[in-house]
Write a structure and sequence with these properties.
The chain is an alpha+beta fold. It has 5 helices and 7 strands. It starts with 14 loop residues before the first helix and ends in a 6-residue tail after the last strand.
Length: 175
């Protein structure tokens, strides 16, 4: 008797039902043999679906559709994991969305965003007022760099005292 991967036919089948069961079982065993000869035997999920076909519960078309859905779900593209985080945060789409979220949050809270600019200066950007200030090394004063993207007059620098949420005019006499 050839090896089978499926449960024996249930008792009480008519001769025609038994013949149909054995035919489905033979086809299913052949499918397992062909898949195994290619190097990969069907997994338990696939064998369970094939058993339902052998038992007459599913048509072969239903088994194929369910197997396709199972494999598509298993091998569907997944969101990047931590191993891909570097590439993700460098992507233009991520950068644009990040800038929108951070700027929007700072604007709503009348706060600032602190970062190093391309020249290496520590700056504070106030999205609500569109002002950009250079922060002093001791972080006590701010020097206006631009307003609304227009550079400030460097001949007459505007220097203010740095405070957590807003700024006040700075006077060298107060220190």
């Amino acid at each position: 008797m050839p090896k089978t991967h499926f449960q024996p036919a249930p008792a009480g089948l008519t001769p025609d039902q038994l013949s149909a069961y054995q035919e489905r079982e033979r086809h299913a065993n052949n499918a397992v043999a062909i898949a195994s000869s290619a190097g990969t035997a069907p997994g338990q999920e696939s064998l369970a679906l094939m058993q339902r076909h052998v038992s007459g519960e599913l048509s072969i078309e239903q088994v194929i559709a369910l197997t396709d859905a199972m494999l598509k779900a298993r091998y569907a593209p997944r969101p990047p994991g931590l191993e891909d985080i570097g590439a993700l945060v460098q992507s233009p789409e991520f950068q644009e969305r990040f800038d929108d979220v951070v700027s929007g949050t700072a604007r709503r809270n009348n706060s600032f965003i602190a970062y190093r600019d391309e020249q290496g200066r520590m700056v504070r950007e106030y999205p609500a007022t569109e002002e950009v200030f250079e922060t002093s090394a001791d972080r006590k004063t701010l020097t206006l760099l631009s307003v609304g993207g227009i550079p400030a007059d460097t001949a007459q620098p505007v220097v203010v005292e740095a405070t957590p949420y807003r700024f006040a005019p700075y006077s060298a006499e107060e220190t």
